[in-house]
Automatic annotation (TrEMBL):
Residues 24-117 form the CoA-binding domain. Pfam families: CoA_binding_2. This is CoA-binding protein.
């Protein structure tokens, strides 16, 4: 199936920006399912951001890792020492309904599927159990956007200006 054909079959409607902000504000803990110790992976980048720039308790779920960023990695959501408020998922589409069921089983409040992840079966399963669901959005980007830390390159430059940037060597 082509990406275009998949796009036209999307019927699920995600939460609005204020609703996504509410989900992030209610969360105290985030479990990253599919977290990686590989610095080139998106989950690693999101994890470093959340640890450094957010108030959340962050937990990593990856049965093939012992530790990620100096913190323990757990085999499953059920193995975590807490019930995560938000389950942030970096897994292939075929795994998403299973992860959604695991999030329901542990009593999570929200299921968040990262950019490029869309699975209406997983969304229906989670919503049917009362979880908030976000798909095809990045927790890091949304958190930074709502908290004033997003620049075109994805980070805060600390500079606010309406001046056009000068290109080196030109006047």
């Amino acid at each position: 199936m082509t990406d275009t054909a998949q796009q036209t079959q999307r019927t699920w409607q995600g939460p609005s920006a204020p609703e996504r902000l509410g989900i992030l504000r209610r969360a105290r803990s985030i479990a990253i399912v599919g977290a990686s110790a590989n610095p080139t992976r998106a989950s690693y980048f999101v994890a470093t951001y959340l640890l450094a720039s957010s108030p959340y308790e962050v937990y990593f779920v990856n049965p093939r890792a012992e530790a990620i960023l100096g913190r323990p990695a757990y085999d499953s959501l059920a193995d975590l020492p807490v019930v995560p408020d938000l389950v942030d998922v970096f897994r292939k589409d075929a795994d998403l309904p299973g992860v959604a069921q695991e999030a329901v089983d542990v009593g999570a409040a929200a299921l968040w599927l990262q950019l490029g992840s869309w699975n209406e079966e997983a969304a229906a399963l989670a919503e049917g159990a009362g979880l908030d669901v976000v798909m095809d959005r990045c927790v890091k980007i949304e958190h930074a956007r709502f908290h004033g830390g997003l620049h075109l390159a994805g980070f805060n430059t600390g500079e606010i200006s309406s001046k056009k940037q000068r290109v080196s060597g030109r006047r």
